[in-house]
């Protein structure tokens, strides 16, 4: 089936080239001596060569963009379902915790391979306006962790027993544009991107231990810095951006979501070369990706790139690490991937 689909796509691209050349030829008035007809043939060949070159260029850049943008798109989808779509069963407003009160089984799909000995506390943060202060209680030695991911799925900070201990603490998660001062007694955690995903886990020693874990969860709080020390919290849900959902039926929706994601969460300056490359097919930071403004060759190349990029990612997932005594040992950079795409 995959071979048939690939062949169909190639026939479609070939037909598109022929249609383009036919349209050009139709615009040429052929003179009696055949001079213009000869020139028309040259124009057709040149136009076809230019179309194929542009289509191949868009394809080559598109494959790299797909591999680069895959984590961005997955985070976009996760943020939309968990924090921007009120109709989703997973929905909780931005900058608020959603606490899971039961131990999880295979039916839980909000995160991959969930633990079944911890209760989850999950939140999406918007740091565009100001930092968000995370408060954690004294857990009296109980294991817990607050894992923090930027929009590229890099783990930039942890709060918890192994990283900061189990005493009560306050931690300000600070976005890239913040230049203010923090109150005393608040530890600064610098986030690389404006949107951050917190995945919290608190150890539960079976069902009988759940009430004690619930009491700890209820003391995890997220407060905008401007409201720190005050009784009322800002109604941050009203500030949620209006963003489109991920529409699987749209052929180039992947690249639209990627473009929105990186423009809201610019990568570090040392990745400017990637952004310059992606700009050549309207995918970088310089402009919004608009499908209806793409030329036919670029659109065709990007559609082909999505199919091939997906194949590459799927093939890679079959071998994620080194097998040792039946265990898959993940690479050392798992969780902080840097420039490894």
TrEMBL record:
InterPro entries: DUF1254, DUF1254_sf. Pfam families: DUF1254 (PF06863). Residues 95-224 form the DUF1254 domain. This is DUF1254 domain-containing protein. It comes from marine sediment metagenome.
């Amino acid at each position: 089936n995959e071979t048939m689909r690939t062949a169909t796509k190639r026939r479609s691209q070939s037909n598109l080239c022929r249609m383009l050349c036919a349209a050009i030829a139709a615009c040429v008035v052929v003179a009696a001596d055949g001079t213009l007809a000869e020139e028309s043939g040259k124009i057709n060949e040149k136009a076809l060569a230019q179309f194929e070159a542009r289509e191949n260029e868009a394809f080559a850049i598109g494959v790299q963009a797909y591999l680069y943008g895959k984590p961005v798109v997955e985070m976009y989808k996760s943020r939309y379902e968990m924090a921007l779509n009120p109709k989703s069963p997973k929905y909780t407003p931005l900058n608020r915790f959603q606490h899971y009160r039961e131990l999880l089984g295979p039916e839980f799909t909000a995160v991959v391979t969930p633990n079944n000995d911890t209760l989850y506390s999950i939140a999406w943060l918007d740091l565009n306006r100001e930092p968000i202060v995370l408060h954690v209680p004294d857990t009296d030695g109980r294991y817990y962790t607050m894992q923090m991911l930027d929009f590229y799925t890099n783990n930039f900070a942890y709060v918890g027993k192994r990283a900061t201990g189990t005493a009560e603490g306050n931690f300000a998660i600070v976005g890239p544009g913040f230049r203010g001062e923090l109150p005393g007694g608040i530890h600064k955690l610098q986030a690389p991107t404006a949107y951050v995903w917190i995945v919290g886990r608190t150890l539960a020693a079976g069902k009988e231990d759940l009430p004690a874990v619930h009491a700890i969860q209820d003391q995890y709080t997220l407060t905008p810095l401007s409201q720190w020390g005050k009784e009322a919290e800002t109604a941050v849900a009203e500030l949620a951006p209006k963003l489109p959902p991920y529409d699987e039926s749209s052929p180039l929706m992947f690249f639209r979501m990627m473009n929105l994601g990186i423009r809201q969460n610019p990568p570090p300056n040392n990745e400017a070369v990637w952004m310059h490359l992606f700009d050549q097919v309207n995918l970088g930071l310089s402009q919004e990706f608009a499908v209806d403004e793409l030329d036919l060759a670029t659109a065709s190349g990007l559609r082909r790139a999505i199919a091939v990029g997906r194949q590459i990612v799927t093939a890679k997932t079959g071998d994620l690490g080194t097998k040792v005594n039946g265990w898959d040992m993940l690479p050392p950079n798992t969780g902080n991937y840097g420039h490894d795409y």
